[in-house]
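Retro notes (design track)

What went well: tokenization of the new backbones is finally stable.
What didn't: we kept losing track of which sequence belonged to which structure.
Fix going forward: every design gets posted as structure first, then sequence, in one message. First example under the new rule, 105 residues:
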């Protein structure tokens, strides 16, 4: 007979605990911002690596393509290709250094 009788109702979630959790999360966030210890977002390193790769490949391909096109129309054979390829590589490395020196958020 005791099996059919309902037991005591479960206690409802206390609003004070929810409020405390929210305030604690807010305080942790503010403290990490204040102390400069913000955690990097997930996947930030992956995105940064892709950007560095795109800068490197884009600089080389762009310089080579523009140099080859100018060589084709001006008849200067490999000289503009080589010069603009070198400039593309220098530009790519300059951008990579600029990216690596940027402070993370």
């Amino acid at each position: 007979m005791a099996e059919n009788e309902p037991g005591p109702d479960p206690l409802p979630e206390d609003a004070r605990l929810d409020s405390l959790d929210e305030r604690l999360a807010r305080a942790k966030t503010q403290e990490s911002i204040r102390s400069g210890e913000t955690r990097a977002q997930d996947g930030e390193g992956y995105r940064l690596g892709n950007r560095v790769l795109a800068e490197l490949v884009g600089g080389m391909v762009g310089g080579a393509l523009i140099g080859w096109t100018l060589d084709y129309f001006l008849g200067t054979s490999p000289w503009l290709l080589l010069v603009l390829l070198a400039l593309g590589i220098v530009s790519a490395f300059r951008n990579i250094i600029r990216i690596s020196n940027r402070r993370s958020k």
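Added context from the reviewer: The chain has three helices and no strands.
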